[in-house]
TrEMBL record, chains A, B:
Name of the protein in its database record: 2-succinylbenzoate--CoA ligase
Leading EC class: ligase
Record field: catalytic activity: 2-succinylbenzoate + ATP + CoA = 2-succinylbenzoyl-CoA + AMP + diphosphate
Claim: Nucleotide-binding is one of the keywords in the record: yes
Pathway(s) of this molecule: Quinol/quinone metabolism; 1,4-dihydroxy-2-naphthoate biosynthesis; 1,4-dihydroxy-2-naphthoate from chorismate: step 5/7; Quinol/quinone metabolism; menaquinone biosynthesis
Species this chain originates from: Psychrobacillus soli
Length: 476, 476
């Protein structure tokens, strides 16, 4: 058993600030009080212990209260990604079969699910008492999140209390815990990158500064003001902050501790520019199935091991499958999901106790993990492996290139060949890029086509969706 | 399963300093290497996984290596208190029935145990390989320590890996973890107050500065030099440091984080003087059966809740038994021992899942624990309860009193009456003290006898042994 996270935290440090949003502030005591109040209203509407509740909402303080309310009631949360299409959402609702759906605003979507309430409808009913559990079982499912799913239908991943707690413990032992820490949360709360910040907050007694969504200017303003010490990001967010800082000649203050950058490899070029701007970037390797981080670079290694995602955190174990230097990354530990819901329920995510991620990487002689690529994105061209990330990294080295996405297209001769999608920030031409790239990469890795686009397809947490790049090809 | 603590730590941060002793320094990599080397020598001598090894030695780096070596081999450690009499040690050896006894120096004691080796005898043999376990079970017994035992024979308490890890986790969430933390260890390593620092060191990746024993001048010198940030102590050690600081007009530097003071209530007078000397004192309530801390005051409450031992740490739960405000302190959590070895093996330390400590205390309306006294020390006089600690606190308020110990003596009329043992630091008389005390306490709490002594009886961790005070009475 573990203690009821929010109640224990509210009893330990009731007056510490749990949440800041614009000019508003919630202490842990107030957050606990509002969570119980909302839970009693959910209870009035029929929700109770053991039920499954799907939530579709934007990141704001009310969503945090609603999430905690559902946890207090003893319900499982299905966290829906509000950037999905209605078809995708309806699939997840059908697959996870929640007892209720709770949404912040009906008008955003028309979903084919009958047992639903809006936040306002619940807010307006009376409270009905329920017994708050003092302790929670470790095995309890806290959240269900559908993975981005690179092949086939997305799967609903169960994240248990133990998954979240052990993940947060491992992260604490790596990053340290300071009573004055404050985490800037610009990641969506329905995604593990955002939700894990919420878990750390109640577990550590740490303040969250919440932004509804990522805005580079707003994030930088917050960081420069000295109010926050940590932040989670993906590579593209880092790049956007770098561009702003560079244009203004600004750097991060020394009080800021680290940006934890996950969601795929970070181009070395970004890491080098980050050093110039005094941004302590710690690469991490995490995913929905591991309730966030599995490896994260330690601060002391940030410069020496540039490009690495670090070592496995205290309770985590990683091995590389196969006989070659680069192989599939496999993960073990108490932070790894025990399984799925819905159609995939009978699928065991583990093979001999190890999660086979489908991601490719290697460990250097000192045990640092380098994530090379997502296996499903691998382009096999004439028997040679081409890692899209490598080609993308080469492209963004060009001063006119802001972002790049690379994928494979079918080719009669080679099987697949790489194709590049480029967002520009300066003047260049296809010809100039081809010349530039020839200096960077072997001939078989050269993109055969270049598409100049305004933006790249990204998921709710700004991770590049390479398989979506195909849609561009189909449409040309 | 948890990872093998030392091996995981050495793989995560091999170059961080694990241990400093005088001018010597051990990184985690070196400590792991020396532990394995010594373990292979123990193995040569016949020790192997599943065995029980008793250790009798002074606090020094070699003892740390030996302790880690035994853990690496997969053995249980019986940690013997070197300040005990030979009779007491022989009892503990007979009761715990270890497979081997390992001592730093034969000449110190003549123990009736045949299967024994000195550190040197082991050092001088060759190494024989054994398979180092990558993971350890949570239930595994790491250490066995005999409790000071206020009544009857001392009991050998099993401390499991989970006990130690969860205790260290709860402490980390309260105190915070900083990569630059360094804990000054002047407590004996065979006692939970010292051994728990060793566990935190490998778990957090934190440096220990080791002193063979507590010396107020040496501790203050170390703290003033800025090399350490934390320290564990008991009340009398705090008093000795205060006296030195006051005589020299010195205060602790701001870089120092906290002195964790356990082993019984701390007189308010000491706490107030500590504030004057910029010593951040955090009272804690812990014991052998809970692998160290159960409650510890948080830094932010240090001044507001002076005299309290704080709130139950994240994974710990505390309740007060009985119907009165002051009752027996009961403890629950993953840090609580699962049981004893030897004669007490069949005794379940828990009643309905709660450890009944025999200690008396209360919780205020905000949930802060105040430890009033050890129940077994309670003096019941004419039906009234007298808590020795309360009388002692009153005594040390007098400017000439350095330390005080109070216990009960048999009395025909009242059952028991309090008797005071006083160590002076200035000029005073029995008459003056009596007059002083009448202003402080109710008539029935007044000591009937005063004994002026040079020192008070204390155990290996400097905790006052009130039952030993009786010996003074017998001898007068």
């Amino acid at each position: 058993m573990y203690p009821n996270l929010l109640m224990k935290r509210a009893s330990l440090t009731p007056d510490r600030v749990a949440l800041r949003f614009n000019e508003q502030e919630w202490t842990f005591a107030r957050l606990a009080e509002e969570a119980i109040e909302f839970a009693e209203k959910l209870h009035t509407k029929g929700m109770e212990k053991g039920m499954r509740i799907a939530i579709l909402a934007s990141s704001n303080p009310k969503l945090i209260v609603v999430m905690h309310a559902c946890m207090q009631l003893g319900c499982e949360l299905v966290l829906l990604n509000e950037r999905l299409s209605e078809e995708e959402l309806n699939y997840q609702l059908a697959d996870s079969a929640p007892d209720y759906l709770v949404v912040d605003d009906y008008n955003k979507r028309s979903l084919s699910f009958s047992n639903k309430y809006s936040f306002d409808e619940i807010e307006n009913v009376g409270r009905s008492f329920f017994e708050v559990e003092k302790d929670w079982t470790k095995e309890r499912t806290i959240t269900i999140m559908y993975t981005s799913g690179t092949t086939g239908r997305p799967k609903g991943v169960r994240q248990s209390l133990e998954n979240h707690v052990m993940n947060a413990t491992g992260s604490a032992l790596n990053l340290g815990v300071h009573p004055n820490d404050c985490w800037l949360c610009t990641m969506p709360l329905f995604h593990i990158s955002g939700f894990s910040i919420l878990m750390r907050s109640v577990y550590y007694g740490m303040t969250i500064n919440l932004h509804t969504k990522f805005d580079a200017e707003a994030a930088i303003k917050e960081i420069l003001s000295g109010t926050v010490t940590r932040m989670s990001a993906v590579a593209v967010m880092l790049e956007r902050m770098l561009t702003v800082l560079e244009s203004k000649g600004l750097s991060f203050p020394n009080t800021f501790q680290s940006v934890i950058v996950g969601g795929g490899p970070v181009p070395l070029n970004y890491l080098e520019r980050a050093i110039e701007r005094n941004i302590p970037v710690l690469q991490t390797y995490g995913m929905t199935e591991t309730a966030s981080q599995t490896t994260t670079l330690a601060s002391e290694d940030a410069l020496r091991k540039l490009g690495s995602a670090g070592k496995p955190l205290f309770f985590a174990d990683v091995r590389i499958d196969g006989n070659e230097e680069i192989g599939e990354i496999c993960i073990k530990g108490p932070h790894v999901t025990k399984g799925y819901v819905g159609a995939a329920e009978s699928t065991n995510p583990l093979v001999d106790g190890w999660l086979h991620t489908g991601d490719m990487g290697y460990m250097d002689e000192e045990g640092y993990l380098f994530v090379v690529d997502r296996r499903s994105d691998l382009i096999i061209s004439g028997g040679e492996n081409i890692y899209p990330a490598e080609v993308e990294q080469a492209l963004v080295k060009h001063p006119a290139v802001k972002e790049a996405g690379v994928t494979g297209k079918l080719d009669d001769k080679w099987g697949r060949v790489p194709v590049a999608f480029v967002v520009l920030k300066g003047e260049t031409s296809e010809e100039e890029l081809r010349t530039f790239m020839k200096k960077q990469l072997a001939p078989y890795k050269q993109p055969v086509d270049y598409y100049f686009v305004d933006q790249l397809p990204r998921n709710g947490s700004n991770k590049l969706l390479r398989r979506e790049l195909f849609n561009y090809i189909k449409n040309t």
